[in-house]
Amino acid sequence: MPRSRGSEIRRRSRPYDLSMVSQRNTGIPEPSADIRQSEDAAHVLRQFRQVLNTVKTHFQQVEKKSGLGGAQVWALSIVQQRPGVGVNDLSRAMDVHQSTASNLVKALIAKSLVEVRREGADRRSVQLYLLPEGARALRKAPGPFAGVLPGALQALDAATLRRLKKDLAQLIVVLNADEKGAGIPLGDM
User: Fold this and answer.
1) Which segments of the chain have a pLDDT < 50?
2) Domain extents in the chain
3) Coil, helix or strand at residue 117
4) Residues with Cβ < 8 Å from 20, sequence gap 6 or more?
5) Residue 49 has what pLDDT?
């Protein structure tokens, strides 16, 4: 049945509704804001899974090939790059708590991968040196030694990093995440 000219004019004088356009063009209504937010949340969740699975896969390969955990390999690589490094400097280089670095060092000493020397005027401070067995373990381990995520983050431009930092800070607040978790190496999770 043909439309009358009057109904067409009334229809055009209504406020413009994008969902009506979608219905007219495709026959499928535009999803509501709640549905779009749920779809976006599901998409972001999948993205987190991709990131975390990539990190996990890397650390599994590291452990399989070297026999060491990812954090141990990272610590070994720092000791190799900076012979004589102290535990405090190691913790700063890995961005972990000093006690975490100290526990890593104890494990590396127990496996005869590093040695501790007390050199210099302050005999309380220790310096770490790579032992031959530690060098062999590093040769077996696939890189990057710090893990794949730190390098990927470094590859992002500054604006993207700032946005990511801000957005993840909001997520951390919503999660009510424990700050202590920030000092645990990903390879130890």
Assistant:
1) 1, 7-22
2) 33-183
3) strand
4) none
5) 93
Beta-strand relationship, 127-130 and 114-117:
antiparallel
Sort 109 into a burial class: Cβ within 10 Å, 0-12 / 13-18 / 19+: middle
CB 78 within 8 A of CB 128: no
pTM score of the predicted model: 0.72
d(CA 169, CA 58) in angstroms, rounded, equals 25
What is the pLDDT, as a whole number, of residue 31? 67
Give the residues across from 128 on adjacent strands.
85, 116
- In this structure, the number of other CB atoms found within 10 A of the CB of residue 189 comes to 12
Query: In degrees, to the nearest 5, what angle opens at C-alpha 152 toward C-alphas 168 and 147?
Result: 100
Neighbours of 23 (CB within 10 A): 13
Our measurement of the distance from residue 51's CA atom to the centroid of its chain's CA atoms, rounded to an integer in Å, reads: 7
Architecture label for domain 33-183 = Orthogonal Bundle (1.10)
Query: Residue 149: which of 98, 108, 91, 95 has the closest Cα?
Result: 95
Place of tokens 């060098």: 135
